[in-house]
Each structure stands twice: as structure tokens, then as C-alpha cells.
Design brief:
Helix content is 42%, strand content 14%. The protein is of the alpha/beta class. Among the domains are: 113 residues; 198 residues, Rossmann fold. A hairpin with a 2-residue loop joins strand 4 and strand 5. This is VWA domain-containing protein. InterPro entries: VWF_A, vWFA_dom_sf. Keywords: Membrane, Transmembrane, Transmembrane helix.
């Protein structure tokens, strides 16, 4: 009996030690599994796992006790032990089952207390351009992944990338501590009001600014002695120019009908072809293409023709990026697009994956045409240093990010198909994906592009871009703009809508020149009767210098107070008023959400079309979003009456939703200057 007791104690002791060992090891395994998968077992299998684990633990412990007490006095245990094989392996199996069940229950509770938690990542903020936002986000994701692997699974940095708008906007914000100006100077001697002149797409203060070209940096830090000043102060902000991050040559993207023997240079007089480029006033692409034309004309002894050459582009300045321009050209067949090689590549790759920015057809049937003297985009990395001292962990992540981007600039794998910079070229001019696209058209540029890159001088091109700016100003015509502002209650469905409307209106007012003429209507005039289908004249058409004092304050004071939305009626009335004024190239700008709330049927679209058929007035709709009536997959121009209105060739819609009000309004003003 004594020996039996000893054997029983030994068996119990061994089972208990085994149970503890299995529990600890299983807990460690399960906890590590949870840690690296980023999910608990409960999240994977649901609450049934916990109930099952508890029942399995309870059952295995009872069976383990019965197995250890074979021949014991308890009747229930004797009945249970009859179903278990009388072998040592039975005890091992039951011990393992009990240990794993216990581990499943306690691992999620114990592991967080034992494992060190990851600290919050440092945030780096990068401001860039609309065309670079997507590609830089991919690069930032790669950097974050690499830093996480280097840091033992914890992510030490979060890189936020967003499009910051024009160089003018960036300059204003950098000089003002990245804060909106407190007020804006009114036209005339009126009081100041809150500024809506800065696009609300701007995000937090950036640590880096990556524009399209070094010529944009040179607008903030003018070159001295033909050299780039790599350190510059702007207000309380320090700027450090760290060098290019990637390259892409500018090209003429030509349709199949383009003559094969015409090299990019001076635009030929061809009535069968149209010409388009992104806005010269707010993209490096537009400015450098303009600079190239001015340079060719000047060096060929035709400098007097620069203003005349610029006139061919006026009226096509609305696109604020190459992607936006190619999107707009989707419906036209015989237009030469002056863009970048990377923009053509991305448009081709996006053919089966339409961007939300381009819900329609992207123009992909254009072939790049190259010339050795066309300039490049170099997308420089500019470090922004604010006055406050930064923490050491931020400094360390800054340096790591800079090394990553500047190393990536020379990494040929990044420019291959599927690479993070596919379609661009390295800082030495290499780029497998871009070369493949160029070779399809017999360009044979693999070696020649290297030499072109070496000759690219951003300081020299900055000087030519300034001359192109002057030629553009000379070619511009006075604008005549009648602005109709929607004050219907649907404009208040979300607060951002009315802010966007004010932004559009004040941006247009702020860009007026002395010879421009401007008028302001609001609609509807009231809720009932004739007022429900009419507009109120706040400012009659007049030259900018004669506009009333406090005009911006008037815009600030507008509010969505009336229920009806007589959109078609106001378009007809505005067109007829501009026709009576007989202003050449006049533009009716309608700021609206497109939602029509009206008791009667109102003016029919067919009747409005007949009015539009007989006019030279252009109608530009700035759509600020339909609020609750706008579906998730809709753009602002898809809401309500706007798609049907925009079917007429005299009407175009500009999407001002999601922070694009400022850019849309600038584009409308530039179109008005072209007189067509």
C-alpha cells in the first residue's frame, strides 16, 4: 500500500509538472502568435473559442484526475477511468490538452503585462503637389515598413503626405507660421473680414516640402550668382534644399493625327489640332513648357512673338495638375497635351483603374514626343525648420527619412515596372518603365536622356519661366465674370459646403486685375412667388477698381436662408444679362451644390439648351458638394442637376469638393482671361 501511495504521488507530481510546462509554453506560443498577427484568438474565432477552451480545460482536468486515481474510492472517477486507456501516454495527452486549454484562456491576459508596448510613432508631415501625392504615399509606406523591421516590429515613424496647393499658397503659409491669415484687405477702403483665400485642403505644418520643380523653391529663395541658395529664411521658417528626389522630362503628348516630322518646340499653326497644358500660374509643368517655348522663340530671333504664342493656351489653364488635364482631355481627340513623361505613364497605367479625381475616361491614347532641350521636373526635397526646437527622436527619424528618399532617388529598382517610382527616372536619367514606354514609339532614348539630365540647369530655367510669366500677362485679356452664388438651404447640409462656396467666391475676387469686370448675384431672391425663381443683384458688373467697399465682407455675410434652388432659371438669366452687356468672352460662374429643391417644375432643360445654343457666353459651375445627397462614389459634379447641365458644350463643371474650391476658382479666372 505504501508503494502504491508513493507511485500515486509520483504520478500526480509528474502530471502537475507536465501540466504547468505545457501551459507556460502554450501561453508563450499563443501570445507571440497574437502579437505578430496583430489579432487575439478571440478575434479570430469568436466567443465560442473561450467557452470551448473553458469546457475543454474542465473536462481534461477531471479526466486527468480520474486517470491519476485509478482504483480510487470515488465511484464517479472509476466510471470515467474505464473509458481511458491505462497507458502512460494517456496522462501525457490529457496533460497537454489541459495545458493548451489553460494557455488559451490566460495568454491574452498575461502577455500584455509581460511584453513591452510599442511607443507612439513620430509623425513626419510632407507637403507636395497633386501629381506627386500618390507616388509619395507609396514611398512613405515603404519607408515605414523598413523602419518597423529595423525596430523589432514597432513602427517608429508615421509619414503623412498631402497636396499643399500652389507655390503662392505655400509661400503665404510658410511666412505666416502655417496659419491662415487673420484677415484680408478689402477692395477699396472697407473693413477687413475673415480670409477664405487659402484652400482648406491644407493640412498640418509640414516637416518637408516637395514641389514639382526646383524653380518653385527659387521663387522662395531667389538664386544668387547663378547658384541655388540651399539655406533660406522665410519669416520664422528655415528652408534647407536637400536636392532632387526623382526626375521626369517634359514631353508633348500627341494624338495619332499629329505630324510625325514636327519636333517639340514652337507650337505650329495647325487648325486641326488644339493645345493644352496645366495652368501656367500654379504648376511647374505649365511654367516650364511656357519657358521652353519662350526660349525657342528668343533663340530663333522671334522674341516679339512670345505673347502671341502664349495666346494659344489661354482658356485652357483650368487644370491644376497634369493628371487633371489628361482627365479633362478624355473627351477630346485631337489635342496635344504638354505634360510630363511620368503623367503620360500614369494615365496609361490607370486606364483600368479610374481615379476618384477622374471619374470619366482618362486620356491614354497620347504618345510622348521628346526633344533634347525640353526641361525636367526634379521634385526637390526641401526641409522645413520651424522656430521651436524638435525632440531628438524626431531628429533621428528626419535623418532616416532623408537618407531613404535621397538613396531612393538613385535606386534603379524603384523605377522599374512595379517599382515605387515607376514611370519616373532616377536623378541620373535611368528609368526602366519610362524607357519601355518611350521605346514603343521608336524614341530610342535610353542613353540620350542621361546627357539631357546632366545639362538640366534649374536656375537657368527659372529665369526663362519668369519671362514666360511676363509673356502670359501680356497675352491675357481682361476678364468679365458674373458670379451667381447659391444661398439655398441645401447648401447648409454640411458646414464645409458653404465654406467652400465662400472660398471660391473670394478667390475669384482676389485674383481680379484692374481691367477685369465683375458682378455678384445671389439666388434665390426669396422663398415664394417671382423671388423663388430670381436672383438678387448684389454688385452690378463693374471694373475691379470700382467695386464697392466691403465686398469680401458681403460675401462673408451670405447665408443659406431660402428653400428654392432656381438653378436653370439663374443660368438663363445670367447668360442673357452677359449677352446684353456684349462683353467678349464673358463667363457666368455659378457656385452651387447642384441640389434643386423647388415646388414647381420650373424651367426645363430643353428650353435652357436653346438659350445656350444661341450664345457665346461660357458657363462654369463650381460644385461644392451635395452634402447628405451626395453618394460616397459621386464627385460634386455628379449631384442633382449638374450632370445634365454639363452635357451642353457651353457648360463645364469644376469640382470644388474636398478642399478644391481655391484651385477650381483660380482655373475659372484663368479661362476667363483667354476670351474663349
Amino acid at each position: 500500500m505504501t508503494q502504491t501511495d508513493r507511485r500515486g504521488k509520483t504520478k500526480k507530481s509528474t502530471s502537475f509538472i507536465g501540466f504547468l510546462a505545457v501551459t507556460v509554453l502554450s501561453s508563450l506560443f499563443i501570445a507571440l502568435w497574437q502579437e505578430f498577427l496583430g489579432q487575439t484568438l478571440g478575434a479570430l474565432l469568436g466567443d465560442l473559442l473561450w467557452v470551448g477552451a473553458f469546457l475543454l480545460l474542465l473536462g481534461s482536468l477531471v479526466l486527468l484526475l480520474a486517470h491519476a486515481q485509478r482504483g480510487g474510492p470515488h465511484e464517479l472517477l472509476r466510471l470515467l477511468v474505464k473509458v481511458l486507456p491505462d497507458t502512460p501516454a494517456t496522462g501525457y495527452v490529457l496533460t497537454a490538452i489541459a495545458g493548451i486549454s489553460a494557455a488559451t484562456l490566460i495568454a491574452p491576459l498575461v502577455w500584455p503585462a509581460l511584453s513591452p508596448s510599442c511607443p507612439l510613432p513620430v509623425q513626419l508631415i510632407v507637403a507636395t503637389t497633386a501629381d506627386s501625392e500618390t507616388v509619395l504615399r507609396r514611398a512613405a509606406d515603404d519607408h515605414e515598413t523598413a523602419r518597423r523591421e529595423e525596430n523589432g516590429g514597432c513602427r517608429p515613424v508615421d509619414v503623412l503626405v498631402y497636396a499643399a496647393g500652389t507655390t503662392e499658397t505655400v509661400r503665404t503659409m510658410l511666412g505666416n507660421g502655417w496659419e491662415l491669415p487673420a484677415n484680408t484687405v478689402e477692395l477699396g477702403a472697407g473693413p477687413s473680414g475673415r480670409s477664405y483665400l487659402i484652400d482648406r485642403s491644407l493640412g498640418a505644418r509640414p516637416h518637408y516640402w516637395i514641389p514639382e520643380s526646383t524653380i518653385e523653391y527659387l521663387e522662395l529663395a531667389p538664386p544668387e550668382d547663378g547658384r541655388i541658395d540651399r539655406s533660406q529664411e522665410l519669416g520664422d521658417t528655415g528652408l534647407d534644399y536637400l536636392g532632387p528626389t526623382r526626375m521626369t522630362p517634359l514631353v508633348w503628348a500627341v494624338p495619332a493625327t499629329f505630324p510625325p516630322d514636327v519636333e517639340p518646340g514652337i507650337l505650329p499653326d495647325d487648325p486641326e489640332l488644339d493645345w493644352a497644358r496645366p495652368g501656367l500660374q500654379w504648376t511647374s509643368v505649365g511654367r516650364l513648357h511656357g519657358a521652353h517655348q519662350v526660349r525657342v522663340l528668343t533663340e530663333s530671333g522671334r522674341e516679339a512673338e512670345t505673347a502671341q504664342a502664349e495666346d494659344r493656351f489661354l482658356g485652357e489653364e483650368g487644370a491644376d495638375s497634369s493628371a487633371a488635364l489628361l482627365c479633362r482631355l478624355g473627351r477630346w481627340t485631337d489635342t496635344v497635351a504638354l505634360v510630363s513623361e511620368a503623367a503620360v505613364y500614369r494615365a496609361r497605367e490607370a486606364e483600368d483603374d479610374a481615379s476618384p479625381e477622374c471619374p470619366g475616361e482618362t486620356r491614354t491614347g497620347l504618345a510622348p514626343r521628346y526633344a533634347p532641350d525640353l526641361p525636367f521636373l526634379d521634385h526637390p526635397l526641401v526641409r522645413v525648420l520651424w522656430s521651436a526646437e524638435e525632440p531628438s527622436d524626431l531628429t533621428a527619424e528626419r535623418r532616416a527619412f532623408e537618407r531613404f528618399l535621397l538613396d531612393l532617388a538613385e535606386d534603379e529598382d524603384a523605377y522599374a515596372p512595379g517599382g515605387v517610382y515607376a514611370g519616373y527616372r532616377s536623378v541620373t536619367g535611368r528609368g526602366e518603365a519610362a524607357d519601355d514606354m518611350a521605346d514603343e514609339h521608336g524614341a530610342g532614348l535610353r542613353e540620350r536622356v542621361f546627357g539631357w539630365v546632366a545639362r538640366f540647369d534649374p536656375v537657368e530655367w527659372h529665369e526663362w519661366a519668369q519671362r514666360a510669366d511676363r509673356a502670359y500677362q501680356e497675352a491675357s485679356e481682361p476678364a468679365t465674370i458674373l458670379l451667381a452664388f447659391d444661398r439655398s438651404t441645401s447648401m447648409a447640409s454640411v458646414p464645409q459646403q458653404f465654406d467652400a462656396a465662400r472660398t471660391a467666391a473670394t478667390t475669384i475676387i482676389g485674383r481680379l486685375r484692374a481691367q477685369d469686370r465683375f458682378g455678384l448675384w445671389s439666388y434665390p431672391a426669396g422663398d415664394t412667388g417671382a423671388d423663388a425663381t430670381a436672383a438678387t443683384t448684389l454688385v452690378a458688373l463693374t471694373h475691379r477698381d470700382d467695386l464697392p467697399e466691403g465686398l469680401l465682407a458681403t460675401v462673408e455675410g451670405l447665408a443659406p436662408v431660402h428653400r428654392p434652388t432656381p438653378l436653370r432659371e439663374v443660368v438663363r438669366a445670367g447668360v442673357l444679362a452677359l449677352e446684353e452687356d456684349a462683353a467678349p468672352g464673358a463667363v457666368l460662374v455659378v457656385v452651387t451644390d447642384g441640389v434643386r429643391v423647388q415646388d414647381d417644375a420650373g424651367l426645363g432643360q430643353e428650353e435652357l439648351d436653346r438659350v445656350l445654343d444661341d450664345t457665346d457666353v461660357r458657363v462654369r459651375i463650381i460644385a461644392v458638394g451635395g452634402g447628405a445627397r451626395q453618394a460616397a462614389d459621386q464627385t460634386a459634379c455628379d449631384v442633382g442637376l449638374l450632370p445634365r447641365l454639363a452635357e451642353h458644350p457651353r457648360v463645364e463643371c469644376r469640382d470644388a469638393d474636398r478642399g478644391r474650391a481655391d484651385g477650381s476658382a483660380r482655373g475659372v479666372v484663368e479661362e476667363a482671361r483667354g476670351g474663349r
